[in-house]
């Protein structure tokens, strides 16, 4: 059900500035104070058997408590909110659930390129 109605995130890749690529300490410092204008490339499955890739900014994402364990990450970009404000009732709820809700498995093992950089 989660894979059809909400995107199940497989990978999140950050576009790192040059100063964050120097050492592990630089990367950890950047990760602890990530600027809101950091671009992320999110890959997820959603109702199709291939990966869907979407680029978004860190400031447009917000962590939410999972409701019925279907989504724990929400995309709240201004253009998406404006587009959904024109809809009403069940249509708005369905569009928001399908296009703006994601599931990130937080308990998955750390498969990042720099182990331990994203523990928080």
Low-confidence stretches: none
Give the tally of structural domains: 1
Gross geometry: globular
Tally of alpha and pi helices? 4
Helix content: 25-40%
Beta percentage is: 25-35%
Radius of gyration of CA atoms, rounded to a whole number: 16 Å
Task: State the end-to-end CA separation.
Answer: 28 Å
SSE ordering: HEHEEEEHHE
Largest sheet, described in full?
6 strands, mixed
Tell me how many strands there are.
Answer: 6
Average pLDDT for all residues = 77
Major sheet: order of its strands? 3-2-1-6-5-4
Structural class: alpha+beta
Topology:
Layout: H1 2-5, E1 7-14, H2 24-32, E2 39-45, E3 52-57, E4 61-63, E5 73-75, H3 78-85, H4 89-100, E6 101-103
Parallel strand pairs: 1-6
Antiparallel strand pairs: 1-2, 2-3, 4-5, 5-6
Written account of the structure:
- The chain has 120 residues and is an alpha+beta fold.
- The protein has one domain (2-103).
- It is built from 4 helices and 6 strands.
- Strands 3-2-1-6-5-4 form a 6-stranded mixed β-sheet.
- A hairpin with a 6-residue loop joins strand 2 and strand 3 (52-57).
- The model has no long low-confidence stretch (mean pLDDT 77).
């Amino acid at each position: 059900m989660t894979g059809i109605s909400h995107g199940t995130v497989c990978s999140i890749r950050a576009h790192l500035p040059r100063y964050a690529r120097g050492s592990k300490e630089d990367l950890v410092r950047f990760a602890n104070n990530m600027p809101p204008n950091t671009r992320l490339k999110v890959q997820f499955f959603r109702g199709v058997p291939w990966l869907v890739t979407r680029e978004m900014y860190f400031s447009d994402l917000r962590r939410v408590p999972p409701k019925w364990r279907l989504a724990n990450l929400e995309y709240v970009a201004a253009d998406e909110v404006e587009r959904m404000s024109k809809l009403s009732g069940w249509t708005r709820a369905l569009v928001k659930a399908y296009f703006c809700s994601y599931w990130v498995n937080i308990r998955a093992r750390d498969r990042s390129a720099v182990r331990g950089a994203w523990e928080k």
